[in-house]
Amino acid sequence: MGTVARYGRTLIEDGSPHQLADRLTHVISAGLIRAKEELGRNLDIPSLPMVLSGLVAAVARGELDAVDPEDAIFKQLVADLAAHAAA
Predict the structure, then answer these.
(1) What is the pLDDT of residue 24?
(2) With 90 as the cut, is the pLDDT of residue 52 above it?
(3) Cα dist. 46→4, 23, 30, 42, 49 in Å?
């Protein structure tokens, strides 16, 4: 929720609260799909909330265009966030 508090205005500027909810649902769902593949390899359960909030922040800052769990850039971002969370 801290990420939404920091970047929520950016996320909602071009749309309605419903669009914000849809966007957040999409990025979190994609993150969970990716996490399912990475758990036990590069990601652990305690790191998951930090990874998901990092994905939301990346979308809010406009740093992530493709919110697709199979996209190479999305995969790399999840791996980077997981490594940072584990450090």
Answers:
(1) 85
(2) yes
(3) 20, 24, 18, 12, 7
Report the length, in residues, of the chain. 87
Cβ(57)–Cβ(7) below 8 Å: yes
pTM of the model: 0.78
Instruction: Identify the CA nearest to 30 among candidates 57, 62, 56, 3.
Output: 56
The token pair at 26 is: 């999409």
DSSP 10-61: HHHTTS-HHHHHHHHHHHHHHHHHHHHHHBTTTB-GGGHHHHHHHHHHHHHT
What are residue 43's phi and psi, to 5 degrees? -140, 140
Burial 62-79 (b: 16+ CB within 10 A, else e): eebeebebeeeebbebbb
Q: Could you tell me if 58 and 64 are in contact, meaning their C-beta atoms sit under 8 angstroms apart?
A: yes
